[in-house]
Design goal:
- The protein is an alpha/beta fold.
- The protein has helices at residues 51-74, 83-90, 97-108, 125-138, 151-155, 159-167, 182-187, 194-206, 221-239, 257-262, 271-284, 312-323, 327-338, 347-350, 352-383; strands at residues 22-25, 27-28, 47-48, 112-116, 144-149, 170-178, 210-215, 243-246, 291-293, 306-307.
- The radius of gyration is 23 Å and the shape is globular.
- The protein binds iron/sulfur cluster.
- Iron/sulfur cluster (SF4) is lined by residues 30, 32-33, 35, 38, 40-41, 118, 150, 176.
Length: 386
Amino acid sequence: MQPENKSFEQGPIRPPNEAGSLLLRITRNCPWNHCLFCPVYKGSKFSLRTVDEIKADILTARAMADEMTALSETLGFGGSINHDVINAIFSDRRFTDQHRQIAAWLYNRTGACFLQDADNLIMKTNDLVEVLEFLTEIFPEIKRITTYSRSKTVTKKSVEALKRIRAAGLDRIHIGLETGYDPLLKLVKKGVTGDQHVAAGQKLLAAGMEVSEYVMPGLGGQEMWKAHAVETARILNRINPHFIRLRSLRVPPRVPLYEKLRDGTFIMQTDDQLAEEIRVFIETLEGITSTVTSDHMMNLLEEVSGKLPEDKAKMLQVVAGYQGLSDTDRLIYRTGRRGGAFRSTTDLKNDRATYRKLKALVDDIMAKSGPEGVERFINDMVDQYI
Ligand code: SF4
């Protein structure tokens, strides 16, 4: 078969847990775009897409999915996207990356769809409802639809409007909360206050949506880390979102915060300081039933995850496990974690071969360039994930 040479628009990012979702772009870029730490849409202008444009993209994605099903039938697999069909699609250069993405989505049967870009509740309620209804009609296999939005935008929608959007199929909103500490929200130009974060979260919950709040360890730097940890936890205690997701700060040269880093007015937390910040944050989470995840590669401790309140002690134990390591083992763990070799501090004991290799590497860099050279090496590895 000759695949149709069509494509639909997609944006630059999605949350880590939406890796298996169908990605469709319904607005372009970020309407705010001022956050000092955020590199994603800098230099790109926000624009709404028309309902007709989005519908045309949904139809294109559907046509691609139907092509995959037709190919499966031709190959004798009755329309099912199985391993053989995936192999046929991935080894045939006439298929585009989008064909492959859709084939993988059908194969994995996640039934999940993520709507890109940064703030989709900014769409007029009627338009968003129309898009959602069309999407679920054209793709009946979609079982969960999620998107990003800003708290400030949510506060401008009524609960009734949010309920209509929920009824039309939008299940979950990912919010970049980052911090609950007002002076820090102001410093990083987030354009929202802690109270507005709370109001937005509570509105979404009242409308029956799932709420996923992103927190940014390290954002307070060495000056505000404690207030950042404590006030963020307190704001989350008032919301009780379904999910709290950790995504640690990194500062690439292309973000405005880099200037403050250079002139010394912002000092990054070290990994050891970050561990203490996370301990204080988790310790301050009280009276909520959220699920905490640390599923971003930039996080130091991936195992700080679990359901509150029952897993709180386990999460604190993960931090204590790191803090209880010797200076040498913390350095080796950080090198292994940042290089993708370790996922847990227990790997230090369980994977002795990797431990020995990393120790030899760290010793070598230390001998040639001293402690600063090792820190540079580790930082360079983390920055590859930005
Ligand atoms: S609102 Fe989100 S996408 Fe927009 S600049 Fe801030 S962090 Fe980036």
